Amino acid sequence: MAKTYKDLREFLQTLEEEGQLVRVAGPVNPEPDLGAIGRAAADIKNGPAVLVENIRGYRYSMVTNVHGSWKNHALMLGMDKDATVKEQFEELNRRWDKFPVTPKVVSREEAPCKQNTITEDINLFELLPLYRINEQDGGFFLSKASVVTGDPEFPDDFNKLNVGTYRIQVKDKDRVGIQALAFHDIAVQLEKAERENKPLPIAITLGNTPLVTFMASTPVGYNQNEYEFVGALQDGVPTEIVKADTCDHLWVPAGAEVVIEGYIIPRHRVVEGPFGEFPGSYSGARLQCEIQITRITHRDNPIFENLYLGVPWTEIDYLMALNTSVPLYKQLKESMPEVVAVNAMYTHGMGVIISTKVRYGGYGKGVAFRLLSTPHGMPYSKIVIIVDEFVDPFNLEQVMWALTTRVKPDKDVSLIENCPGMPLDPSSFPAGMHTKMIIDATTPVAPEPNPRETQLLEKPVGSEAWDAVLRDLLKKGN
Amino acid sequence: MICPRCDSDKIKVMVKSPVGDEWEVYVCEKCWFSWRSTETINVLPKFRLDDEKIRNMQMIPPIPPLGK
Ligand SMILES: [Zn+2]
Predict the structure, then answer these.
(1) According to CATH, where is 3.40.1670.10 located in chain A?
(2) CATH 3.40.1670.10 fits A335-440, yes or no
(3) Any catalytic annotation for residue A135?
(4) Which residues of B touch A285 (CB under 8 A)?
(5) Does B29 touch chain A (CB under 8 A)?
(6) Domain with B21 in it
(7) 10-residue averages of pLDDT along chain A (478 residues)
(8) A87-305: which CATH number, 1.10.10.10, 2.60.40.10, 3.90.1200.10, 2.30.110.10?
(9) Distance A278 CA to ligand 1 centre (A)
(10) Quick one: three-class SS letters along A310-369?
């Protein structure tokens, strides 16, 4: 059984033991140091998580870049820290099929996140060392919260409980803005509440066990509960949850560092942003929702977990790499068993590479159509590259080979105008609409004519045996 | 004091540093820009706001009609 973590603290301990966490004793300034630390950690190959122990003017510590390298990502899964990306993809695929694993409900007394309760004079700054992440951001942001909301129409339906990551701007000591994009699950619930002019109860959880954060940013179906996925990804070990204090149908991770409870103020929008986003540019200011905070519970000495995001790759790109690829792969595989692997690691799935067997002529384009009608692929995916089953989509050298030797641009490149898009993509215009580009880099299969039939080279006989011999010689230092 | 983004004078102190007398955070009650007293703020011209820009801003998500 792979190693699992009950809370963020257990994971940080493992990172430290594996040489993947460093401590900055400080004191450091909130600006520009905390943002700069996140940027610097991401710029280091196999960069560590960084725990900043002393920040000027604040009481508690802050940790960043927790998910920000492939080594940390492997350790999150309880794998060897040197596991390759493809190995991690395959392990996630295996565990994914254990869904659903019912979470373990613990009592309020057993839940560390309930150690302290604040209901009066709420002040986020007392607990969280808030800071500006990028210079032109409109304020201080929570970039790594797992946000819990229910469906107002079916409050008791646990499947419809949503755990998602949304950017949150601090507007006051007890009030924050939230970005609820129209195509995300929370917007479905908000619309139901706003039609009735009712507040939408919400719990913002910070500093969770790494797989809760991982699932919160995973595009699964509306009727799929993220906590049941966490148990699956823990290889069958249930994750622990506890009921929120202010709402009977909201459940929060028992081991969270901080739980902020409140409600989205209905039919209310004010200026939010700008905010430096994962495409590497600022997304402009827009009129967005606000949350009134009514209660906070937290652990003793809470650690503020937040991430830096900016020009890729940063922590968020590691976090969103495989948790975007795996569900897309599963969704495609359900109806198209020919699909071999999906690489949606680039800019949160705006670029996707799919490897597939081609069942009949034109099948590659059909696979692209399927991707472009999945919950995530429809708005996000703009450039779709389809390669043969023998091309590893995680190996860009192989993908470039497929592009250069399998693409006849006049028939294999298709542009489809006026499609759903992703507003944070700075090339989408109007924001939220774009043209799709499909590149079919597969070998033509009948009835598509292939006038230039080519013969793939085979490895010379004995290559594999020689591979082992040469590796052995290398090890001996010859 | 005026807001470095929209020039409004509706500024309030959001919070003082919880430990020591290190800094204060201010917020503009017109455009909700916030900043710390220890920061050097330079809002780029493209991110500056006025009444017209705020009025014409995109709303995310749109507010649905009220139910019957
Ligand atoms: Zn202002």
Answers:
(1) 335-440
(2) yes
(3) no
(4) 31, 47, 49, 57
(5) no
(6) 11-56
(7) 93 98 96 98 96 98 98 98 92 97 98 98 98 98 98 96 97 97 90 98 98 94 95 98 98 98 98 95 94 98 98 96 95 96 95 98 98 94 97 94 97 97 89 95 95 86 96 86
(8) 2.30.110.10
(9) 25
(10) CCCCCHHHHHCCHHHHHHHHHHHHHHCCCEEEEEEEECCCCEEEEEECCCCCCHHHHHHH
